[in-house]
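Weekly structure sync - notes
Attendees: PM, LS, DV (DV joined late)
Agenda: review two folding runs queued last week.

Item 1: First target. Sequence and structure tokens pasted below for the record.
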Amino acid sequence: MTYENFVPEKQRRIMIAVLVLISTVYVSLLVAADISSSQDVEAARQLGVTIDLNYRFTGMKWRIALALIVAMFALWPRRKQWFLISAVALAWLVAEYAMWYVESFRGRAEAGVPNSAVPRTAYLDQATWLDIGILFIVIGVLSWQIWVLVRSQRSGANPSFEP
């Protein structure tokens, strides 16, 4: 089975476009937020005020951005191995969101903050609605990739992932 039969070209291009769009927007917003927070720290330092920023979730957001970029570039080559790498990167991204939720819940429990006092961005600390939207889009893309893999196995596709 050739790659063209494995993944329809039109679907592959749509998924690449979706991943390019959300990864570009997400990385751009992360860079802007980092620049803004560093400017705030510098302005506070000049006023003699010390600001202790919590970077616990910033690293998580950068790992999410990295997973988006890996998934995007892995769809470009027309090889089944790269398709699987893209699916694994998106699964990693979903796992990062799960860990984000766990860390948020743990942090609130340690601080004694009730969940009712948390803004409604899916109980993810320092999350925006863009983060939640990206999660739903990624779940959709990952579902499509799983569907393609299952469909190829049911149609008697050669399980050896040769180019």
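Item 2: Second target, run right after the first with the same settings.
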Amino acid sequence: MTLLLGGCSCGSNDKEDPLAAIPAQCVGVRESVANAPSWATNKLSPELNHGAKLLPLLSVKRDVDAIKDGALVCQVQLSRSKQWDEVGGGAKVLGFRFGTPSSPAPDIGVIMAAGPLPEVTVIGPEDTYDLVYALPRPCLVKGDTITIRVWDVDSGEDQLAGAVKMVVDTLPVQAKLEAGQVICGGLSQELARAHASLSFAEFDRLPAVAAGGFTPKPGDENWGYPRNLGMQVPLSGAAAMLGWADPEVKRRQEVFSKLDDAWQVAVAHSMRETQERLPAPETWISLAPKPIDVRVGVMTCKASALFGRMKSVACEATLDVRNKGSKPLELQEALTDLVWVNQRGGDAGSPDVKLPPGRDAGAENPTLPPGQSIQLTLQVYPGTVASKTQPIFLKFRSERGVPTLVRVF
């Protein structure tokens, strides 16, 4: 789940004062935002962890004043009988899209304004009918209102699931949506800390935390980093209950910062060393055990004027594929394992690949006969290209679990 902020300057990438839109009387919220790390997706409302475990607590009656130092927790449930748009995702390979498959379930988006706080936009996980999120140390008093709008992110606000406005006296408050329902309950500080302990324990058990660091491994997923954002998820989960200013959250954030700084130095060194061992451009590289050889050419870039003033830069590299097997090779299947590796060593999605001019993919899956090769075009976007000191790799995933690094840009 991703939490973004709309209607104020609390977003992590906003250069304005993140406290400007938060009223002075909301001391706990201001303290939390002021202590939020730069990587936090949202400084006001961190991503919740283990949200399903909180559901039994939402129906417990509480006075709104009792959650001032705790957390407001809301659950949105959408109807399974409604026809939601089916939108797929992923990268384009030879005109066909690979990646996240289509699903009848929605991608829930919520915009909520709770009392005097600025609006919070919550984007939930893909393909789910249920979303749970939290606001730590809420600045609510009796008589305040909570307004919520819910929609399917895939189709935008034109497919609105409903909008409600609830007056807060005691919790929980709940209301029906056009295509679902919403309930908001509260946790005391004691209960919020008890739930945060799950995230604290998860963070403390991480191998990198227990070992005091980790070693980059070019042959492993994400260059050996222990799970994508492995330390940020439990940190955010604890902050969603207690706020970023909580001493236990801050202590673990300091641990993460030291480990993350050390990782960036170590992975940059490892990537430079790996780069020196890579085959030269235009060298055929085997993707065994698959009967495929590939060869990546030198990248070329061309700038063109955009709207008469701005420059648009397009970069491309040739990608030769050779079929060494005894059967026709389906190019789509062969190229779905092609992945970028970003400057921190993480898997960063698949590039777009085009057939040569005059050869249309059509409705059929293009194939390559045994013993033949074909030259494709690999699109390299300017934001993908790394600096000279921070290379970015192109790799093929392997059935053996060890990827083949084929090129650096």
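Discussion on item 2: Residues 247-277 form the longest helix (31 residues).
Action: LS to circulate a short write-up before next sync.
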